[in-house]
What we know:
By secondary structure, the chain is of the alpha+beta class. It folds into two domains: 2-158, Jelly Rolls (Sandwich), CATH 2.60.120; 171-271, Arc Repressor Mutant, subunit A, CATH 1.10.10. Helix content is 45%, strand content 22%. It has helices at residues 2-12, 116-129, 136-158, 171-182, 190-197, 201-212, 216-234, 239-245, 251-262, 266-271; strands spanning 14-25, 29-33, 39-46, 49-53, 56-60, 64-68, 74-77, 84-95, 99-100, 110-112. The strands form two sheets. Strands 1, 3, 6, 8, 9 and 10 form a six-stranded antiparallel beta sheet that branches. Strand 4 (49-53) and strand 5 form a beta hairpin. Helix 4 packs parallel to helix 7.
Amino acid sequence: MNEEIVSALLGMAELKLLKFDVHRLHAMNYRNRTFQEYYMMTYVRKGTAKLRVQDRIYPIRPGTVIFIPIGLEHDQYMDTDEETEFLWWHFTYKIHGVIDVLPFFHIPYIYPLKNYKKFEAVFDEFMLSTTRGGYIPNVILQKAKSLELLYVLLDNAFGNEGAIGAGQPPSSFLSVLLKIVSQPEATFSLQELAADLHMSPTYVSNHFKELFGKPPILLHREIKIAKAKSLLEMQEMNIMEISGYLGFNDVQTFARQFKKYTGISPGQYKGLFKRPPV
């Protein structure tokens, strides 16, 4: 049951590569570093380094992947002057830009990359694709290669014992999450969600927040606003149509909620993406 729900959630998530590069270093000394907005993954093609998480120090050798979750304080450093080559990238993997799906899995901080030759070839192809400009097929190629990179990395990570299932929420609450994220246009009440689970509304709200960071109704509202932003950017529906589609009682309520979360009105936001006349 959990696997089917998580697969559906993963299918809705969007991978965004924010920054990436190849560094060849003779010295490195990052101390007490924390990433607040994105994950970092690093592959060591050659050379050595070390990673400290809490009181444990991990040796990093060629063929090793380093996975740094959001909010993890760590040190990453070199204690020799030999050249070490790092292939690294910052990324997010979220549904509607709101729900992070990677916490559903227990991914080790470091692990060996068994099919490293395939990964290196895909990474080199990806880096080459980024030098070719905005030609449409090339943009598609970049997205395809970025997803292939993630597949290779996670396929190896999940091969480690305990990677799948260890950190997953109960299937009942995953079902509620799937219901919320797959229906931004719907109107839900806490009482209805709790009735589906045969639990009290207070317990559902509190436990859902413990699992996913926010109460279900607040999360659904944020997803509505994220969907509204996407529709406004597309320029295919007017503000009244978007308001009605997303289940707001009236345009004024929609505009008020939108401004609360974005700081600007729907009209102002839509204007940011207005296409120049042909």
